[in-house]
Specification:
This protein is an alpha/beta fold and 292 residues long. It has one domain (4-284): Rossmann fold. 37% of the residues lie in helices and 17% in strands. The chain has helices at 17-25, 51-61, 75-80, 82-99, 132-145, 168-177, 195-207, 224-234, 265-271, 278-287, and strands at residues 8-12, 30-35, 44-45, 65-68, 104-110, 150-155, 158-159, 182-185, 189-190, 193-194, 212-215, 222-223, 242-245. β5, α5 (132-145) and β6 (150-155) form a beta-alpha-beta unit. α1 (17-25) crosses α7 (195-207), α2 runs parallel beside α4 (82-99) and α4 (82-99) runs parallel beside α5. The relative contact order is 0.15.
């Protein structure tokens, strides 16, 4: 495999939250991009549920690096329809891996592989998912680890802009600007991860030959109310419009790992730096807001 910018990248899911920022981080590189629900100029339209089309797209791209940023990240949807969501989040990734046997496979996992009973967690802590989304991420990690050339990046609380404006912060901003109240789980910990920094870190990890599992998350573990208040402040919005509700009272189908959090010392040691703290990351998101 070549090194650095000479590598050909295949970015699956280029229009999602992580994919949007990976597109920018990969500007000037040799990259083939795919998108599905959101049309994207210069990308290949691909539904990963279509096995034959996936095989064809991957083999035609002849990638050195495959980044799977396409996923169904709706935790409740995974709990309610395990078969359909597993078809995309697990089975389609196995097909991609088989179609590019010599490429470096980069996949995104989550703190939801842990039960949240005794966080924060390091990369080698035992996984014990308590919901279907977490179980699918464990299966995804296993697919990646079947090959030598893999990079598993566990993330948490990713925030930033995408066309669909689906990140927690984007939803908070849109709701509060509309004068609507916004419910926030009162008893969950997250490790807020700025999407632009995450994308840059992925490219840097690959360029520097990283392999294995990394917690690619921000440097702080915060409770969701604290992070929500910081987000409101960064955008000049009224935090009094936030309602903090215990997870058990939110009527969710899927259990949540409440006391999770990702330790990121390994990432910082390898790169020599970490991702932005929430304050800086939220200010950068505010300053980069796209016009609607």
């Amino acid at each position: 495999m070549g090194a650095g910018p000479a590598m050909r990248w295949l970015l699956l899911g280029a229009s999602g939250l992580v994919g949007t920022h990976l597109r920018r981080a990969l500007m000037g590189r040799d990259v083939v991009m795919t998108s599905h629900r959101t049309p994207l100029e210069g990308s290949v339209s691909l539904d990963l549920a279509n096995g034959a089309a996936t095989d064809r797209a991957v083999s035609e791209a002849r990638p050195d690096v495959v980044v799977v940023a396409a996923a169904n990240a709706f935790v409740e949807g995974c709990e309610r329809d395990p078969a359909a969501t597993r078809a995309l989040n697990v089975d389609a990734v196995r097909r991609v891996a088989e179609a590019a046997p010599r490429a470096l496979l980069v996949v995104f996992s989550s703190e939801y592989v842990f039960d949240g009973a005794a966080g924060p967690y390091a990369e080698d802590d035992v996984v014990a998912p308590i919901n279907e989304y977490g179980r699918q991420k464990v299966a995804l990690e296993q697919i990646a680890r079947e090959r030598n050339d893999h990079l598993v990046c566990r993330v948490s609380g990713v925030y930033g802009w995408s066309a669909a404006r689906t990140s927690f912060v984007a939803q908070l901003v849109d709701r509060l600007r509309a004068g609507q109240r916004f419910r926030v789980p009162a008893d969950q910990l997250i490790t807020p991860t700025p999407a632009p920094d995450l994308a840059n870190a992925i490219v840097e990890l690959v360029d520097r030959g990283a392999r294995g599992t990394f917690h690619a998350a921000g440097p702080e573990i915060l409770d969701r109310p604290d992070f929500a208040r910081r987000a409101a402040a960064a955008f000049g919005l009224d935090a009094a419009m936030l309602d903090f509700v215990p997870t058990a009272q939110l009527g969710l189908a899927a259990q949540r790992p409440l006391r999770a959090g990702l330790r990121t010392e390994k990432l910082r040691r390898f790169l020599g730096h970490g991702l932005a703290h929430a304050g800086k990351g939220l200010e950068a998101m505010r300053d980069a807001e796209p016009s609607r």
